[in-house]
Amino acid sequence: MREWVITNGIGGYAASTDFGGMNTRKYHGLLVASLNPPGKRRLVLSKLDESITIDSDNYALYTNDSCGVITNGHDYQTEFKKSSYVTFTFKINDVKIEKNICLMYGKNAVVVYYRIENKDHEINFSMTPIVNFRNFHYIKDDNRFNYTQIIENHKIQLFFDDEAKVNMGVKEGKYNPHREDFFKNMHYSKEAERGFSANENHIVPGTFDVFVKPYEIKEFTFVCSIEGDYGIGLKNILDIDGKDVIKIEQDRINKQVENSRLLERDINNKSVEEYSKIVKDYIVATDNFIVKRDYNKLHTIIAGYPWFLDWGRDTLISFEGLLLIPKRYKLAEEILRTFLDNIKEGLVPNGFSEEDGSPLYNSADASLLLFEAIYKYLKHTRNFEFLRGKYYNKLRKIIDCYIDGIDIDNNNIIVDEKDFLVNSGTDNTQNTWMDARVNGMAVTPRNGKAVEINALWYNALKVMQGISAHFNNFIAQMEYSYLARKCQKSFEKEFFNDEKKSLYDVINGEDKDDKVRPNQLFALSLSFPVMNPSSRKSKEIFITITKDLLTKFGLRTLASYEPDYAPKYEGDGNKRDMAYHQGTVWPWLLGPYFETMKNMIRNEKNKNYRVELGSTLIQFKTNVAETFIDEIENGNSVGTISEVYDAEDPKEGKGAFAQAWSVSEIFKIIFDQEDFEI
Q1: pLDDT, tens only, 283-323
Q2: Sign of CA dihedral 355, 359, 361, 366
Q3: Residues 164, 170, 176, 178: is their CA dihedral positive or negative?
């Protein structure tokens, strides 16, 4: 059973499984609408359950789990396909039913377009919407639904007490209202696995019926939308043709494929058809995460589906793979503005509130990752004018604030005036990417001088050195150059662990955390690596990482021989959080690993070792491509890549089933074309 997701560009989505469309999460639904894009998400339409009467025989096409009893509509399913919309095909004897689900881009609206090929039968086709209107993080386990129905021929409006209105219609359908009808105890097996409440009740307001004559090929559309901004009004609901919506969506994606110019590249032992599919899968997968934020009318990046919103850290790590490689340069600029415009006392927001959209400031790395993203943007576009003036000054302000000190939300960030390294956090403040907490306590306390924070700090100083030179601000250029030299000298002195041939993960006074983790990759992988990638120490670090952390699906977050190593990511919320960064494999870390290899090749003077590294790089790219192209086709997340995998014997993706930085970093490797002269 595989999960799928399609999106509407404003934070809303549809998601379910390929197993007859059976929902296995509270987050599944055919319309999860965003009331304050991209946040304030509400489950509106859980499912649309169909049944068909052929002559006098009735067949249920729906598949649901209710307290362990699973209906068998999936037995009639013959095919499932996904691109930027999904298609289920069913066949009963000689009758073929095609169900296409597509979201209207920029609207909180879903269309379900049907095509029924009939032979010599009298057919009545029934569609029963399963409706809710609740925060998508919660479950409705009672029958207290206060709503009224307004019925107008082929369309209806459900009016809820909180003034939310849901519009539905089928142009050729006859609507039969139900009275006090509920779907009770829809069971979500994934929620049960995660230790959460797993049974939910929904409204069943009525049924739409469509008659199909003998030998007729019948095409018709069911539409569901919310009223108001970003919705379709009841007056216009029947004007929507699902076939047209799908064509518009296909054209939108095809235009992005064309603009990316990826089809113009060499295809590397793939047929034209195979390579074209890879490119289209990439464009669709990355497009899912790009959404518009309502209050500033600018775009941002959803970190992952189904439960994440836009996170600064995830956005900036995903930046090149989601935006620059496919040449979405205008969107890239908008997304930089989204975060630059919300800087507070030197901090880029690491997230935004789901309900009111207010920025959240709880990271030491997001501000520093901004410099790497901007450097990559300038490298791709050469658009320095974007930075000139206001935004250049904002970048300077970030550096100044790190030096002077930042204590918003206990971030406790300050550059140590003795060694020019960045110190951040408190015992219970998690402001690096390893941010899991259990019962209010940090699972992986990393307060002090974290290795990746200081690698990013050095990189930021070098980026500012170059930008200042471009703007002829030579005093600032010299200042950043001086700070960078001091930082680099201290870093090399303090962080190398000769015993383990790796870098310390965190330095806190006299305490040095020697656990082998992948965070040390940042010292070698950034545009300006704080350590010389061709040095003896760097080679030893790379060997340690490769030997102890590298797996087929990503890098382990902790070496298996370290205390508290967790081989499996499973169980309830607390158990999963305890394992989240204690061994669990993350695919996105393959990106920094790959960039490390490239930096090592660029800097290597020994020709024989350079040739060896080049061969290793090519094989690594091949392995990543084979592994994840197969995952996208046959893994448990159709057309996308999951957040995490087990550290030992991984069989399927876990966590969020579609994660932005997983998709970004994997496809960045697949499409890399840097040609090294070996």
Answers
A1: 999 999 999 999 899 999 999 999 999 999 999 999 999 99
A2: positive
A3: negative
